[in-house]
Specification:
The complex is a heterodimer of chains A (384) and B (576). Chain A has 11 helices and 20 strands. Chain A is of the alpha/beta class and 384 residues long. The longest helix of chain A has 21 residues, at 363-383. Chain A is elongated, with a radius of gyration of 23 Å. Helices cover 34% and strands 22% of the residues of chain B. In chain B, helix 12 (472-481) packs across helix 14. The longest helix of chain B has 19 residues, at 522-540. The chains are: A alpha/beta (384), B alpha+beta (576).
């Protein structure tokens, strides 16, 4: 090692969702050595392919693209599995972009799966404000796409895995062609491949737009995110470890993490991207010592939680917060309090994504916040 | 207790004040178990009746009770005649609706902590239930068994706290909402009429004070109208004093002491027996396996709030959990998935504790208040609904001089006339076994009609609610034949959306189906679904603990992603 050359700063990112991968990406680009620890599937792995949030800067756009999210400057219409046409800035690229189809007739494939009532969905899309305004029509078309009886009832994810096989994609293209060779575009259920890009393949084979609707939680969109995340992190040279973090201690000199397997890990800076209540980063739990029920971070760290304007460090009820009074929406507002760069009051500790109090729980917000926090963490580590 | 018309009571006038024949013989207000029971009884006797329900059938206490058709052991020492008639009627209900009944074996443990008192208590229970055993054959119940602490540890290993011994006894449960639906369906097939979501706005009275019908407003369409009749029966349970007020009577003409009761349901079966234990104030509460979940109940508190918005409070939920946690700590690992709240129309009493109030029932003849021809049904309990309805119908029949005896105890309810082997539904309909078993439980012999739908339109075999599970064919069947007009109504009839996922996967689709069948727009369907989801979230807010919180947060995220951040409640595309 050359004398005088500093070791690259080490940054540990806790959490493997959108915010975590963005923090890792930014920290690596800022020259840090990054380890990403993640425990289990969180809200990002459950996302439905719809990416709401603020407009992105160039770096965020690049990352979004790598994660399979098509981002547009203006909101564009997509179809959700509950029969709604809604506008999104970002979407999993398998979702059918309806903007160029305005005024046309879109075929909704009725493949006979139990979770997909094509006729009623087509009616619901056709009667939406967007379709009425643009005179777009959705028509259910019977398609013989199932090869086995069980395919009627397996989950959309499991059916999506079958479409990862290339011959199956060709068979589906043929089935669509047979069902209606003249269809201008095809809207299908959320099962156009998990590891593969079946949607663009189908579009190429049929030379017309083909895409899916948004996924249910636990569907293909979240699974695709996880695969693409792993690929991005591999290319960045990020060390990816499946580990549960039990505590983080930080000071002006650096940070130390304790892992569930008993081992420890030192870092110059730490980014908490644990997710909110939905992801399990913030728990509503019974504290073993006091028996008190309340919100707590899923790991031990010297950072208090905040809900709206209140600090949650002192309880007023042994039974925990009253959701009858605060509403269940409190579950989405609780978190740690961080500044715009994701800095917590504690030294060398940063946070991004759904674990931050009072921020919108959206994909693009998590990406932007993750990038800021990753950049700030790498900067603090290098500067310190 | 019952008010038979005085000998020589005049029959009500044949004509309304305008000199016209009335639309029906009897208007019944209230679609709970008593109102639907009377509608069925009168329809079986050939008396023309119409029922008006402000919300949905079984919306109130009838659809939110523990569903016990018990034999009334609590009356055994003070009034054994009541026990006898309760057991007899429990037996009748088993015969007319066998598909809806399920056995509830109770276990009453005695804890060692009480020392000598434990032995005395066990001996007393043993003696008491020996007496109750004499009535058990009336309702096909098994005799009680006295168990040692070791035997109980084997049968119910989750019980802690030093069990000295205990006794078991046998009762029956029923789905209260399905019972009401069965009564309405039978009545409608025999010429009775029923209108749901239609509130009575006034009880019409002649110059001499006698009642001759009602005016109403449809709460969904706003349509208003009148229906004239010779008699009016107020069977509105906890709403009874409000209803008599619609005829200009003072609320104490039909005075009740409203007692709110809540139940919490948990995501799994925790016990083999329904276990009875004591709450902090000494009241008995129970933890009972019910279909694929457990039910914890019940509370009893005076209630003077909005009857259309009865929701379990945090205090009530804590009270119930606290009662069971000490003896069955396993309850902490279960996830609470919902609550029921209902208000009992208990007979009025002053200076008594809620629990000690009489569960007896009474027909009030409002002739005493200057409103001849108007009757109120006060008090009662689910288990005695048939008997109470018979008593009310006897009064009506006597006034109208109809000499046809009651047949509700021998004539089967819809679905009870024929038994169906669920395996047949599996083999003929391609349903999964659990889907078939649930369908058969809810519809008995009528499940064959749901099967026919699937055979006609195979796409209707799709399982829409995967938790319970509920098929599209069943949803369409209850919309077609059981007066369901929104997602809440379908849920009340089929349990759609009441399982572990809370309707996240099925409510919107159910809304689309209902909207389509009732000639409404997809937006209306979505509104119905949101209304259902918001209602169930409100019913869960008092039980949101560690296990529930993550799912609730995820649910909020899913709704937002489906409908959009800036979406209106219709969720349509407005933000570009």
């Amino acid at each position: 090692m050359t004398e005088g050359r500093a070791q690259p700063a080490s940054v540990v990112v806790v959490g493997g969702g959108f915010a975590g991968v963005a923090a890792a990406w930014a920290a690596v680009r800022a020259g840090a050595h990054v380890t990403l620890l993640h425990a289990s599937a969180g809200a990002s792995a459950w996302y439905n392919g719809v990416a709401d949030g603020p407009p992105l800067d160039a770096e965020a756009l690049e990352l979004a693209m790598r994660l399979g999210i098509a981002v547009s400057a203006r909101p564009r219409p997509i179809a959700t599995r509950e029969g709604v046409i809604r506008s999104v800035i970002g979407r999993d690229r398998a979702l059918l972009d309806l903007e160029p189809l305005a005024g046309l007739s879109v075929a909704v494939a009725d493949v006979g799966r139990d979770d997909w009532d094509a006729a009623l969905l087509a009616r619901s899309y056709t009667e939406s404000a967007w379709a009425r305004r643009t005179r777009t029509e959705f028509v259910a078309v019977r398609v013989d796409a199932l090869e086995e009886g069980f395919e009627r009832r397996i989950s959309a994810y499991d059916f999506g895995v079958e479409l990862d096989v290339e011959t199956r994609v060709h068979a589906l293209a043929n089935a669509l062609r047979r069902a209606d060779g003249a269809a201008k575009a095809w809207l299908l259920g959320p099962w156009l491949g998990v590891a593969s890009d079946a949607a663009p393949q189908l579009a190429a084979l049929l030379s017309r737009p083909v895409g899916e609707v948004s996924s249910a939680p636990g569907g293909v969109a979240g699974a695709r995110f996880e695969l693409r995340r792993d690929e991005v992190l591999r290319e960045l040279g990020v060390v990816l470890r499946r580990a549960h973090v039990t505590s983080v201690e930080s000071s002006a000199a650096g940070a130390r993490l304790q892992l569930g397997d008993g081992s420890g890990l030192a870092a110059d800076a730490v980014v908490l991207a644990l997710g909110g209540v939905a992801a399990g980063g913030i728990l509503l739990e019974r504290e073993p010592a006091s028996g008190r029920l309340g919100f707590a971070l899923s790991l031990s760290a010297d950072v208090p939680l905040k809900l709206d304007a209140e600090w949650l460090d002192a309880g007023s009820s042994v039974w925990g917060p009253s959701f009858v009074r605060k509403g269940l929406g409190a579950l989405e507002r609780v978190g740690v309090s961080a500044d715009v760069r994701g800095r917590l009051s504690a030294a060398r500790l940063f946070a991004a994504g759904d674990c931050v109090a009072g921020r919108p729980r959206t994909v693009l917000e998590a990406l932007s916040a993750g990038l800021s926090a990753g950049r700030a963490a790498a900067g603090s580590a290098a500067g310190g | 207790m019952q008010a038979l018309p005085a000998p020589g009571a005049r029959p009500p006038p044949e004509l309304d004040p305008n000199g016209r024949l009335p639309d029906v013989d009897v208007v019944i207000i209230g679609g709970g178990v008593n109102g639907t029971g009377v509608l069925r009884d009168l329809s079986l006797r050939g008396i023309k009746a119409a029922l008006f329900e402000r919300n949905d059938i079984a919306f109130g206490a009838s659809g939110n009770s523990s569903g016990m058709i018990h034999g009334g052991p609590r009356y055994l020492t003070a009034d054994p005649d009541v026990t006898y008639s309760s057991c007899l009627d429990s037996g009748h209900i088993q015969r007319i609706a066998p598909h809806l009944l399920f056995r509830i074996p109770f276990l009453m443990p005695v804890f060692r902590g009480n020392g000598v008192a434990a032995r005395v208590a066990l001996t007393a229970y043993d003696a008491f239930f020996s007496l109750y055993d004499r009535y058990q054959p009336l309702k096909r119940g098994k005799p009680h068994v006295r168990l040692t602490g070791d035997e109980i540890a084997t049968l119910e290993p989750g019980l802690v706290g030093g069990v000295h011994g205990g006794v078991t006894f046998d009762e029956w449960g029923i789905d209260g909402a399905r019972l009401c639906i069965a009564n309405v369906s039978d009545a409608r097939e025999r010429g009775g009429q029923a209108r749901t979501h239609t509130t009575v706005t006034q009880i019409l009275r002649r110059d001499d004070g006698s009642a001759y019908g009602i005016s109403y407003r449809d709460r969904l369409t706003g349509e208003v109208g009148r229906m004239t009749s010779r008699l009016v029966v107020n069977a509105t349970g906890a709403w009874a004093p409000i209803t008599t007020g619609l005829g200009g009577l003072l609320p104490d003409a039909a005075r009740i002491r409203p007692g709110k009761g809540v139940h919490v349901f948990l995501d799994r079966r925790l016990t083999n027996y329904a276990i009875i234990t004591s709450a902090v104030d000494g009241r008995q509460v129970f933890l009972m396996p019910w279909q694929n979940m457990s039910v914890l109940g019940t509370t009893d508190d005076d209630y003077y709030g909005d009857l259309d918005e009865v929701v379990a409070s945090e205090d009530e939920v804590r009270y119930l959990f606290q009662a069971v946690e000490g003896v069955f700590p396993g309850i902490r690992s279960a996830r609470a998935i919902g609550t029921w709240g209902g208000v009992r129309p208990t007979l009025w009493g002053f200076g008594v504790n809620e629990d000690a109030l009489s569960r007896e029932h009474q027909v009030v003849d409002h002739a005493a208040h200057g409103a001849d021809g108007l009757y109120s049904m006060i008090g009662g309990k689910l288990a005695s609904y048939r008997l109470f309805s018979e008593e009310m119908s006897d009064v009506v029949a006597a006034r109208l001089d109809v000499r046809v005896a009651c047949r509700t105890h021998v004539s089967p309810l819809p679905g009870g006339e024929q038994s169906v082997d669920p395996m047949r539904l599996v083999l003929d309909g391609g349903m999964e076994a659990v889907t078939a078993a649930r369908l058969e439980y809810r519809h008995g012999g009528r499940s064959l009609r749901v099967l026919e739908r699937m055979q006609r339109a195979p796409s209707e075999a799709a399982v829409v609610c995967t938790c319970e599970p509920v098929t599209e064919a069943e949803i369409r069947y209850v919309v077609d034949t059981e007066l369901a007009v929104n997602v809440d109504d379908v849920s009340r009839r089929t349990r759609l959306g009441l399982g572990a996922c809370g309707g996240m996967r099925c409510a919107a689709r159910c809304g689309r189906i209902v909207a389509d069948m009732t000639g409404r727009s997809p937006d209306d369907g979505r509104r119905m679904a949101l209304q259902f989801l918001e209602g169930s979230a409100r019913r869960r807010s008092a039980i949101t603990g560690p296990e529930q919180a993550r799912q609730e947060a995820l649910g909020l995220a899913v709704i937002r992603a489906e409908l959009g951040v800036a979406a209106s409640s219709a969720g349509d595309f407005e933000n570009d």
